[in-house]
Each structure stands twice: as structure tokens, then as C-alpha cells.
Specification:
mainly alpha, three-stranded antiparallel sheet, 3 strands, 4% strand
């Protein structure tokens, strides 16, 4: 099996050839029209590659960039598209075994998915919640899921090489940095919101400073989804951080080296601030919201449904 880098290079070459062929056809068409009306000497027939309006024509997408810069941007865009598709597979919107949309109706369930894809190589997330936090705190963490996807889709043999290629193509030191960075920003979610023109189909529950995030798929949303985020993820994350904090406090007071003690004190202080943030988010936002058991109607659109969840969801300017 080829590496992901080789596959993207092949994909890029195919689009370059397709763009050049389209350019040739447009020039021939212009020449034919000009000849028909006797305007060969008056109307230019040449069409710059930058004006060939194919979606993945790098010259059209980035007309002011050099060929090398276009190649870099094409690769970044292709990998961002791949990650978006992978997340779709995590939610059951797509499948490696079948083309097109799989789950795209309101209230879609895994039962509906397995009816269409009986034996998937990559099984969608069971509860429609993908946590996005600053470490490997959950088995179904979105980064763990993406690693699994890369293994299934592109093989184990080149997994580490493919993983590095994804990180480098996205301009990130680690895969997790694309989903969440210190300060709560998510390049992935920014890309998703842009991709869907501020009408995202994946919704991100996010605490005020972004220390806790959980992604859901709106088509699989049910009135109990908020309770799942609250009980199985937010509270679970708080419990894990509390346990880690206790270990850090013991380390800070123990017999370890001064440098280790100082690091433990610093990390403990960071966790305390996060726990305060999460506690307020839980009691002031998530618990009242979960009690409401909000129903949504997809026919009303994202613009109508998204605001129903108030500050529980990541704020999107213009929505």
C-alpha cells in the first residue's frame, strides 16, 4: 500500500493534468468561436491557468502564489479534507465501505448505519460524542479515533509515517494541536465552520476557556445528548483531573527533586484553574441545559437550532 504522502502527490498530479486539459479545451473553444465569427485577430483565445475554475485547480485557488506554495497549500487542503471525512466516518455520516452519505437524517442511529453497512472496517462512535481535551483522557477521544482511522484506511505498515505527514501538512507539532490548543482554540472546528459557511453539522460543546470540548453530530442528536456529554464526559473529565491533582499535591510535598516539586506545583495550579472553570460550566450551563431535554427540528436549519444551546456550544460569529 502506498503512503499517504504518495497518494496525495498522485492526487495532486491528477488535478494538475485535469486542469491543463480543461485549459486546453477552453482555449480550443475560444479559437473555434473566434474563427466562426472571423475574430481570430481581434479576440485573444488564450486562457491563463489561473482562470480555469476547477475546484482543485491550484492556480485558480491561489493565483498569487508560486507553484511551490500552491503545492504546499494543496497538500494542506487535501489533508484537512481527509480529516473532515475521517470525522464524518467517526459519526457514521460516511463509511469506508460505501459511497455518499450514510447517516444524514434527523435522529439517525447506529442501527440505521449497520442496516446500510453491516460489517464496517471502521465502526462509528457509539454515543455520538467525541471528547476533545488536552490529553489521552478518554478511549474515544477524537485523536485516538483519527489514529485508528489512519490505521484502518491506510494500513499499519506506514502508520507512523502517515501520521507525521498529516501533522506536518497541517502545520502542527502534534495531531492534537489541530483539534485543540492551550487557550481552547480549535483549528479543526474553525475549518469545519468555514467549510459549512457558518452552518456547522458538527457542534462543539465547549467550556468558557475551552478546557473541555466535546463534538457531536447534529443528525444523531437526541434530547438526551446533553446529559451524555454532562455525565459521561464533563463530570468524568473533572473526576480524572481531581485524581491527577491529588497525585500532583502528593508529589509536591514528597521527596522528589526540587525541580520536580516545582513542576508539580505549577501543574497543580493549572489544574485547579481548569477545575474551577469546568465546575462553573457544569453547574451554570450544562446541568440546567440537560434538564431541559431540548428537542431540535433539522428542517428549521442550523441557524434556528444552534442558538437553543446558548453558551454550552462554541460561539460562532454570524450565527
Amino acid at each position: 500500500m502506498k503512503t499517504l504522502e504518495q497518494l496525495v502527490a498522485q492526487y495532486s498530479d491528477e488535478w494538475k493534468a485535469r486542469s491543463l486539459e480543461q485549459q486546453r479545451l477552453e482555449i480550443e473553444n475560444n479559437e473555434a468561436v473566434a474563427k466562426l465569427y472571423g475574430l481570430e485577430d481581434e479576440v485573444p483565445s488564450y486562457v491563463p491557468l489561473e482562470r480555469v475554475s476547477l475546484t482543485n485547480n491550484s492556480a485558480f485557488r491561489w493565483p498569487n502564489k508560486t507553484p511551490e506554495e500552491r503545492d504546499t497549500l494543496f497538500t494542506e487542503s487535501a489533508i484537512a479534507d481527509l480529516v473532515s471525512y475521517a470525522v464524518g466516518c467517526m459519526f457514521g455520516r460516511y463509511s469506508l465501505e460505501a459511497p455518499g452519505l450514510i447517516l444524514a437524517d434527523q435522529g439517525s442511529t447506529l442501527h440505521d448505519y449497520f442496516a446500510k453497512v453491516p460489517s464496517p472496517s471502521f465502526v462509528p462512535d457509539a454515543d455520538n460524542v467525541l471528547p476533545i481535551v488536552d490529553g489521552d483522557w478518554f478511549e474515544d477521544d477524537i485523536v485516538a479515533k483519527l489514529r485508528q482511522f489512519l490505521r484502518v484506511a491506510f494500513g499499519e505498515e506506514h502508520f507512523e509515517q502517515n501520521l507525521r505527514f498529516v501533522e506536518e501538512s497541517l502545520g502542527m507539532q502534534t495531531l492534537r494541536d489541530y483539534f485543540i490548543t492551550r487557550g481552547g482554540k480549535s483549528k479543526f472546528y474553525e475549518d469545519h465552520v468555514k467549510r459549512y459557511k457558518k452552518r456547522p453539522i458538527y457542534w462543539m460543546f465547549s467550556s468558557p476557556k475551552g478546557s473541555f470540548n466535546a463534538l457531536i453530530y447534529m443528525h444523531r442528536y437526541t434530547p438526551s445528548t446533553v446529559s451524555t456529554v454532562l455525565n459521561d464526559y464533563l463530570r468524568e473529565y473533572e473526576a480524572k483531573l481531581e485524581a491527577s491533582l491529588q497525585n500532583l499535591d502528593r508529589e509536591a510535598k514528597g521527596d522528589s527533586a526540587p525541580r520536580q516539586q516545582a513542576a508539580a506545583v505549577k501543574e497543580a495550579e493549572r489544574l485547579r484553574k481548569i477545575l474551577v472553570e469546568l465546575s462553573e460550566y457544569e453547574h451554570e450551563v450544562m446541568y440546567p441545559l440537560a434538564s431541559e431535554q431540548i428537542a431540535i427540528d433539522l428542517d428549521d436549519g442550523v441557524k434556528s437550532n444552534y442558538p437553543k444551546f446558548g453558551s454550552a456550544l462554541k460561539k460562532i460569529q454570524g450565527l
